[in-house]
Write a structure and sequence with these properties.
heterotrimer; A alpha/beta (433); B mainly alpha (300); C mainly alpha (315); A: 433 residues; alpha/beta; D-Maltodextrin-Binding Protein, domain 2; B: 300 residues; mainly alpha; 13 helices; 68% helix; 0% strand; globular
Chain lengths: 433, 300, 315
């Protein structure tokens, strides 16, 4: 060997020190866990996706103040698809689960129909009594075949249209939310404004972020989407899907989109660069916008009613897995987090719209200075009231993902729409088959 | 899961590549390099180092800076702030500690197991030696993806999902390590030394500890370094077996990349943090690592 | 090691038959730790994967197994996504391996000169090898960004319009290959360098006396001398390319390897089937196909090499 003997010995010793350190650390780590339960302290783990906003709204801190023996630890994954994959792995392994797991409304059917045995029936802890607090459909969707209560509703996703007043102004378009609500009362009107924007806007700024988000928001306006009432997959022949698909293709062909895939790093970066002027926004998107556009975006955004009427996109539940360590404590926490007062606070801070009926009344007059003082309570409240009650299915999320992928192909790769549609069909078959 | 901790291409030549028995000190060319040679090397070094430099630039700036045209090319003032954000978002402290535990245990275990087995294959005679060695070498070809499914079922059965031993134990199986130590000992451990010890009546275990290990030490050190880096950087199995609540550094990085961190500069700060320990090892022991790699190819 | 305790000052006092038996058995004690781990975490998974691949098993319900025979394999033949990923694995493999090895050879050649600061150069070009796939890919994903990436900015300076490195089939495969090339070129260069240094000096002297130029020396002395090393690196890189997984997964964080699977490799497709769609049986079948593919590639490689060297020996 080319190296000196002393150096080798040094390497060897260093290795030994590192290993000894690692082993010590391992022992130290395990003793920590033991002391945790010994002195009556409980660490509740919460695993979420996207932006529930509890941490940002200071609710964990508040809960910890109310319950001095409780510490809350949250992990969060931005992309729900990633989150769901990891959750499934851990459910299958029956280990590594947090005490509280978030479930998106597009997955709740999978929980009630396929995995009711993997989550706690919250009736055990008296959840029955909470039923009157929530919108009826929200409660029903998380109820299992035998009446199990498998999750408590957090938010719903009434839809509106967020836009950048500064960019619209530059392009000579109106910026007043009432005027815009009228001008884009229909989707055709929205696309028409988009064409006008494109004609006058700076070259690097598009009308909307991606046609995928246009599709998603339009689908939210429908009652039957991917499944019908009987639980059969109907998306391939559903005229509502075709309608939203065609509008998305039209927007793509008119070059109205910034061609950014939602939740990608580039999409994130585009917020601060002003790459798009409008963003279809369910209520929970407000928190994203604040987070991503940051302080510099304050006052540049505004919110108007959604073209084509009210709709709902998303919304979530909090559930307690059977394999959780602190089930009782976890239930107490989610009961508190989903209570009307807390839901109102979240809305005021992050925009996630409450699913608790009492909270909806509490926030009716809310406005948000970040969005130029828009009356978010009224806009989203009206949308929530008028939004259809959607038929949910096991593979909702998967089908939606394949369709938005196909739309990305059209706008980013120039794939022919018919070919892309076929690709989406193949993709869905590959997942379900 | 033999190949789990081995990066795809760390295996040394299965046969002696060239020049069996030639004196190495005389081998090779000694032509002096011209300006062109230096130019080529400097370009290579710049290309190798640039992503590191750029990571530092990105990690020390803000998200808005990163979305600018033209992009920033010099480091900015936000490094500490971004480090703090990483600590808060991804629990990188736990991740670093977990990685240290995992990589340390794998290194220790692998070096021990492989030295034992390598010694047996190199110097002891026993029935089935050739066949077992062939099997060992053959398993280096098994893609790490192959065993993941049953392995996952196995650790699920053992209730090990999201626990560090789920990553450590499979990581100990290193066919490469056995082969590496065998090649090393075949060359550097004289048969006469063992025979002499036997004649003196030393037990097999004693021979191992007082004769084999001292001679094997440089090889063990090289194997240990390679194993440590591979285990630190291993990725495929940990993201299956662990989750963001008990991550290794690589799992945490994946979490940062796809996690609820909307700030690219924070992601880059996390990348920097995860790489620093390996760079440190590399800076201190780079020569040994270079030696370990080349020795695998030449001495083998 | 409890065995150390058995070392007695006067071993001759023990009955020699016991010693003989021990002498025969002790080698197995040395290999036992490795092989017991190997059996549990290497061999068992290998065989069990083959077993699982004959069933329909879903991740959510691993207890329910439904016999499918070879259906998982025959289904792959008709699976467009499988063929796409096979083709991608091949093209990314070529795109990453060929330039990587050629550049490594060139670098090794240069490193073999007498140089000031040779240790520095050797260590520096190995730096990328020390970074993890995850870290390297995250950094390169930024550099290859469509709107704000440094590479597109650089291309813009020389008048080339921005490339969509994520979506274009060729562009995305080049981007993914670049990460592989960056990480492994220095490593391979060092392997080649080691091979070069064991080529006897006299061969060069003889060539020089014949008036061969440096280039001819490289072609006629260095390359033949390096042949076994080159074969080795080709085999190892082939295995690595067939198993490629982390780079395409992390490039956009997409299990499907881009919106139209444009850079999905076999390894990633297996992961998508198993952990994206939860079809463990199908994923197991893909894993075995990968294994057989590697066996075939390595076998073919060995065959070619053997035939080649026989030809040479016969000259």
């Amino acid at each position: 060997m080319p190296t000196a003997r002393a150096a080798k010995r040094a390497a060897f010793r260093l290795g030994a020190v590192v290993l000894a350190g690692a082993l010590l650390a391992a022992c130290g780590g395990s003793s920590d866990g033991a002391s945790d339960s010994a002195n009556g302290k409980v660490t509740i783990t919460v695993d979420l996706f996207g932006s529930f906003g509890y941490k940002e709204a200071g609710l964990y801190a508040e809960y910890e103040r109310l319950h001095p023996n409780v510490t809350i630890k949250q992990t969060d994954t931005e992309d729900e698809a990633d989150y769901w994959r990891s959750l499934q792995t851990r459910l299958a392994g029956g280990a590594g689960l947090a005490d509280v797991q978030g479930v998106e409304v597009g997955r709740i059917a999978s929980v009630t129909q396929q995995q009711a045995d993997k989550f706690e029936d919250l009736r055990k802890y008296g959840a029955d009594a909470l039923k009157g607090q929530f919108a009826e459909a929200k409660w029903a969707a998380a109820t299992g075949r035998n009446g199990e209560v498998l999750g408590l509703g957090t938010d719903v996703g009434p839809e509106a249209m967020c836009y950048r007043t500064d960019l619209l102004k530059q392009a000579g378009l109106p910026t007043d939310r009432e005027v815009l609500s009228k001008r884009w009362a229909t989707w055709d009107g929205y696309l028409e404004l988009g064409r006008q924007y494109k004609a006058k806007a700076p070259s690097k700024s598009a009308w909307l972020d991606s046609v995928g988000s246009l599709f998603s928001i339009m689908i939210g306006q429908e009652e039957e989407r991917y499944y019908d009432d009987s639980g059969a997959l109907i998306w391939e022949t559903n005229p509502a899907i075709e309608n939203a698909w065609n509008a998305s293709i039209e927007a793509s062909e008119a070059g109205l989109s910034a061609k950014l895939d939602q939740w990608s790093p580039q999409w994130n970066q585009a917020f601060s660069a002003g790459s798009f002027a409008t963003l279809p926004c369910p209520a929970w998107m407000l928190g994203y916008i604040k987070g991503q556009a940051g302080e510099t975006g304050k006052g540049k955004w505004d919110i108007a009613a959604l073209p084509g009427g009210a709709g709902n996109w998303g919304g979530s539940y909090l559930a307690v897995p059977r394999a959780a360590k602190h089930k009782k404590e976890a239930y107490e926490l989610i009961k508190w987090l989903t209570a009307p007062e807390q839901q109102s606070k979240i809305f005021a801070k992050q925009g996630n719209f409450p699913s608790a009926t009492a909270a909806i009344a509490q926030i009716a007059d809310a406005t948000d200075p970040y969005f130029s003082g828009a009356p978010i309570g009224r806009i989203f409240g009206e949308a929530a009231e008028a939004a259809p009650v959607q038929v949910l299915g096991v593979h909702d999320q998967n089908v939606a993902q394949q369709i938005t992928n196909a739309l990305s192909e059209v706008e980013r790769k120039g794939t022919k729409p018919d070919k892309a549609w076929e690709n989406a069909k193949k993709g869905v078959k590959n997942i379900i088959g | 899961m033999t190949a789990l901790t081995d990066p795809p291409v760390t295996h040394p030549a299965p046969e002696r590549p060239a020049a069996r028995g030639r004196r190495r000190s005389q081998a090779g060319r000694t032509m002096r390099g011209g300006k062109l040679a230096y130019a080529v090397l400097i370009v290579a070094v710049l290309v190798s180092a640039f992503p590191f430099y750029w990571t530092i630039v990105a990690a020390s700036r803000s998200n808005a800076d990163m979305a600018q045209v033209p992009p920033a090319l010099l480091p900015g003032p936000n490094l500490m702030q971004n480090f703090e954000a990483v600590m808060e978002e991804a629990d990188i402290g736990t991740a670093l500690l977990n990685s240290l535990i995992v990589s340390g245990s794998i290194t220790l275990g692998t070096v021990l197991c492989c030295t034992l087995a390598g010694f047996a294959f190199a110097k002891l005679r026993f029935r089935g030696r050739g066949a077992l060695l062939a099997v060992t070498v053959g398993t280096m070809m098994i893609p790490p993806q192959l065993g993941v499914i049953p392995l996952f079922m196995l650790i699920a059965e053992l209730q090990w999902v999201n626990q560090l031993q789920a990553v450590i134990l499979p990581g100990l199986v290193s066919a490469f390590g056995v082969f590496f130590m065998r090649q090393f000992l075949v060359q550097s451990l004289p048969d006469e030394l063992i025979e002499a010890a036997r004649v003196d009546g030393a037990s097999s275990a004693r021979i191992f500890w007082s004769i084999v290990v001292p001679i094997a030490r440089p090889g063990m050190a090289a194997l240990g370094l390679l194993t440590f880096m591979a285990a630190w950087n291993d990725f495929f199995w940990p993201i299956v077996a662990l989750t963001s609540s008990e991550p290794t550094v690589q799992v945490a990085l994946r979490q940062l990349g796809g996690g609820y961190v909307n700030d690219q500069s924070v992601i880059m700060a996390g990348t920097l943090l995860s790489t620093l320990p390996v760079l440190l090892v590399f800076g201190l022991l780079g020569r040994q690592i270079v030696g370990g790699i080349t020795q695998g190819a030449v001495k083998g | 090691m409890t065995l150390t305790a058995s070392a007695r000052p006067n071993p001759a006092s023990r009955p020699s038959s016991i010693r003989r038996v021990w002498r025969q058995l002790s080698p197995y004690a040395y290999i036992a730790p490795f092989f017991s781990l190997f059996a549990a975490f290497g061999l068992f998974p290998l065989i069990y994967t083959a077993y699982v691949s004959l069933y329909r098993v879903e991740l959510q319900t691993p207890g329910d197994m439904e016999w499918r025979g070879l259906d998982n394999y025959t289904a792959l033949l008709a699976d467009e996504f499988f063929w796409t990923s096979l083709r991608n694995t091949f093209t990314i493999g070529v795109l990453s391996t060929v330039p990587q090895l050629v550049m490594a050879l060139g670098l090794a050649h240069v490193l073999n000169y007498k140089l000031r600061g040779r240790t520095f150069f050797r260590t520096a070009i190995l730096l990328p090898y020390a970074t993890s796939v995850a870290a390297a890919t995250l950094v390169f994903a930024q550099l290859f960004g469509r709107d704000f990436g440094l590479i597109n900015y650089g291309l813009g300076l020389v008048g080339i319009s921005p490339v969509d490195w994520q979506t274009g089939t060729v562009a995305s495969q080049i981007a993914v290959s670049t990460i592989v090339i960056w990480r492994w070129t220095g490593y391979n260069a060092l392997i080649y360098l080691a091979g070069m240094q064991s080529i006897p000096h006299e061969l060069y002297e003889a060539a020089e006396m014949d008036g061969a130029s440096r280039w001819r020396q490289f072609v006629h002395v260095t390359l033949p001398g390096l042949r076994p090393t080159i074969v080795f690196t080709v085999i190892v890189s082939t295995i690595g390319a067939t198993q490629l997984f982390g780079e395409p997964l992390l490039f956009e964080g997409s299990v499907s390897g881009g919106i139209s699977h444009q850079y999905q490799t076999l390894g990633l497709y297996m992961y998508e089937q198993g952990w994206g769609f939860f079809h463990l049986g199908r994923a197991a079948a893909i894993a075995w196909v990968m294994f057989l593919l590697i066996l075939a590639l390595v076998g073919a490689n060995a065959l070619i090499t053997r035939r080649h060297s026989r030809k040479e020996a016969g000259r």
